[in-house]
Design a protein that fits this description.
Elements (H helix, E strand, L loop, with lengths): L10 H10 L1 H18 L2 H20 L3 H24 L26 H7 L1
Helix pairs in contact: 1-2, 2-3, 3-4
């Protein structure tokens, strides 16, 4: 696959495009997203496609651009909250140490204390 990467135009150019040619802006948006997903590693591509589908459906359900923005913000907030919950839930963490991974140690054997040793000290 050729590594042609489109650059995002600056803000003023995007603003002009939004005012002058909203369909052109939408085409640019979808094209940039598609290119990004296509360049993603294979093991992440399906997840990104699913996420983009969810985003597109939320945008379609919105009645106006402000509501669309609020829906996207809500989605991001939910994901960050999920991440925080996962990081704070120590019960899901498990530390497994393989015996072979342990560092060898020297154990110094101690002689057992006998009854006679205790009586000699007094």
């Amino acid at each position: 696959m050729a590594e042609l990467q489109k650059e995002l135009p600056n803000f003023d150019t995007l603003m002009d495009l939004a005012n002058r040619d909203p369909d052109g802006l939408e085409h640019l948006r979808t094209s940039l997203i598609r290119d990004f997903i296509d360049r993603a590693p294979d093991n992440q591509r399906q997840r990104l496609q699913g996420l983009q589908f969810t985003i597109d459906m939320e945008r379609r359900k919105a009645k106006n651009p402000v509501q669309s923005c609020m829906r996207m913000s809500q989605m991001m907030h939910e994901r960050v909250t999920d991440l925080c919950d996962s990081l704070n839930d120590f019960s899901t963490l498990s530390v497994v140490t393989e015996p072979t991974a342990l560092r060898p140690t020297n154990v110094i054997p101690l002689r057992p204390r006998s009854w006679e040793d205790e009586t000699d000290e007094s």
